[in-house]
Amino acid sequence: MRADVVDLYHGDIVKDFGAVARAGVKAVIHKATQGSGMTDSAYAARRKMAADAGLRWGAYHFNTGDPVATQVQHFLDAARPDKDTLMVLDFEDNRASNMSLDQAKDFLRRLKAAGIERPVIYSGNRAKDLMGAHVDAELGSYRLWLCQYGPTARLQPSWKSWWLWQFTGDGIGPQPHAVDGITTHGIDINQYHADPAAIAGDWA
Predict the structure, then answer these.
(1) What is the three-class DSSP state of 189?
(2) CA–CA dist 185, 97 (Å, integer)
(3) How far is residue 40 CA from its own chain's centroid?
(4) Which residues, other chains included, contact 82 with Cβ-Cβ below 8 Å and sequence gap of 6+?
(5) Fewest CB atoms within 10 A around its CB: which of 32, 50, 104, 194?
(6) Number of domains into which the chain is organized
């Protein structure tokens, strides 16, 4: 499997984004926010370091059941997206406070209304568990960042293909489990659906 994109949060130990780029990684997606009030403490500083290394940048918001309008505004305020920033809703299980499917769709609609033309949804088992075999054309219209640890990508039927695939995390799933420049072993690593050279024109 290829390490085309890494996704990070403040708990991952980054030593050198230049080494990350030299290892062949093309982009970083970093946690920006969670719910209505939490901001990742490493987001802003790492954004500049990644840009200086020539890496594409993305921000993700970890869902909660808080009011959607408040979550979206918090995400926009903290992520400070420009035209090159990928914006992602992380729609996975949150035992403390889950976001519903309707809230997820509302969240993505609000991002688009705020000028984010191509938001992405990250999901794996949560979408599959909630939707079963049902095809949701609205959700399926968004690019899917699939979470599926293992050698085979399994899609919920709303999507015909994945855009990014997180094939490993926490040391579970196919190799590689690490990249140069990041000392945390078992980081989340993702493969792009096409030639990674095309990411630049297919990002935000």
Answers:
(1) strand
(2) 28
(3) 14
(4) none
(5) 194
(6) 1
94-146: pLDDT as tens digits: 999 999 999 999 999 999 999 999 999 999 999 999 999 999 999 999 999 99
Which two three-digit tokens encode residue 87? 């914006």
Give the CATH number of the domain where residue 153 resides. 3.20.20.80
Angle, CA 53 vertex, CA 172 and CA 27 arms, to 5° = 40
* Sign of the four-CA dihedral 173, 167, 2, 33: negative
Neighbours of 153 (CB within 10 A): 15
> Which SS3 state, helix, strand or coil, does residue 60 take?
strand
Closest Cα partner for 18 from 182, 178, 177, 175? Answer: 182
Residue 94: closest CA among 125, 135, 117: 125
For residues 35-48, average pLDDT: 98
**Nearest C-alpha neighbor of 101 from the set 68, 79, 76, 69:** 68
Q: What is the dihedral of CA 59, 62, 68, 72, to 10 degrees?
A: -20
Contact 68, 106 (CB under 8 A): yes
101-113 helix and 68-79 helix, angle to the nearest 10 degrees: 50
Which of 30, 65, 61, 35 shows the shortest CA–CA distance to 48? 30
Task: Give the torsion through C-alpha atoms of 48, 51, 53, 58, to 10 deg.
Answer: 110
